[in-house]
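Notebook, p. 212. Picked up where the previous page left off. The plan for this session was modest: take the two constructs that came back from the sequencing core last week, fold each one, and keep the raw output in the notebook itself so nobody has to go hunting through shared drives later. Recording the first one now, exactly as returned: residue sequence, then the structure token string.
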Amino acid sequence: MSVKENLFKRIGKAIGRFFKKHWIDLTVLACVIPPIVLLFDYIYDKFRFAKKIKIFYDQFIVNQGYERLLEGLKNTALIAVVGLMIGIVIGTVIAVIRVIRPTNRVIKYAHNIVGAYVALFRGTPIVVQLLVGYFLLLPIMKVQMDPVAACITIFGLNSGAYISEIMRGGINSVDPGQLEAARAVGMPYSTSMLKIVVPQAIKNILPTLGNEFIALVKETAVVGYVGAVDITTTFQYLASNSYEYMVPYLVMAIIYMVIVAVIAALVKLMERMLAKSERRQ
């Protein structure tokens, strides 16, 4: 038997095994795909999608609307990423304070302060925090701040309240013997928490942190209330300029879905890498 015949034989066997294993899935797809195609064809003709796509193309490509989208993508990424970093720092500090036993008056006051902080930011919508912070608190404090910088700050403060609860759960999931062993060899409490307990807690809460990052990305859709340019405001601008809303908003939804899917895939990849490192140990 020649090499070519052997290759074709192997390919045929592989295809046969695939069909034998997935014949139910293929049957379902064969039944589902034609109606979906017919539905999309009906919608395409009914709502004159060709004309709508042409209008969107003119606004997005010919009139260089993509430049505004690039700015919106940059601002969305900046607000979400830096806001998450600020939230991790604030949340870690709050979580460490809340797991300390209130043995004296100072710690009790600290517990009350961070408890009020968490209640405030978890008890009000992010859009309310954004409006109050930008249009009320900043003018009262006579602070001039760029809308994007203000959004980063407020999103970071908001994220810190949620991450503090996530981090507190992660710290409580770490074996108490880890902290006791670090204290037994003479390490200060703060050093023991930051170098021994907190890294293990972060490993435990990584999937939840990924969900918090996804939530931050989606919540950036409200930053247009204070004049910041993001993905949502970009497509609102394109839609209002063309008086055509269907295609811009569909494209906007697809972009958000792609971003979330990429973040979720990266979080899963990090989980697998951490799992491999644990197995090696």
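Okay, moving on. Second construct, recorded in the same format:
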Amino acid sequence: MMKKISAVLAVMLLAASAALAQEEKAKGEAVVMPDIELVDIPTAGILDYGGFLMKTRFYNDGGVQGGLNFGVMERLNLGATMTVDKLIGNDSPIRMRRPEIQVKFRFYDGGYYVPAVALGYDSQGYYYNPDVKKYREKGKGLYLVGSKEVGISNFVLHGGFNVPDFDNSYFFGFVGANYTLEDKLSFILEYDNVFHTDDPSRFNAGMRIYITPYFQLDMALREIGRSGEFEANVPRKPERIVQLRYNTSF
């Protein structure tokens, strides 16, 4: 079963690469679109009006997360994601989780000293707990994020604050950075879920490979150095993820 799915994914990857290469030739020289997110944290980047992003994220234990994001208006993006646990492999049962929504509005484009700033909402969490029907790692919830290129060209810092759960109104923070090398490879670091020891912080690292300006392959490691348990018999440990992203405009 796993071999069949891996073969299908490989064929999809090659087909997408070939199709996008043809698209680039038709359009002429293409420009890499801004990153709207890193591994887990959002950025102040947005899709332009008419922009479109489709992503597929593969995570631990055969889980798959699919997502769509649209530039529905100038400065406004809307999106949705949905996860399916144990879709890949022989484990069972397969469980489809409820869809989650994403909204982002960039209200300031930044200046020489001041970063671009966006306000958003993201309900997508990780490690779903079916007993209480909530994620053990909550989504960002309501967040404010700023992004700015600093120091050297293509090195961008991102940081912000978020309130994931309005029931307790905890205030969290996050910070990240990415450096893009010749529009071919981006190195990513982020420190997430800061400020509360009872809900541990996360250190994530990864890279984004621009197979074409429209098609990217992400590889990352979440929760580096983390150990312990969310609860009895539910381990908390580093997680490897792979993600395919396709973005373009209509």
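Notes on construct two before I forget. The longest helix spans residues 2-27.
Flagging for discussion at group meeting.
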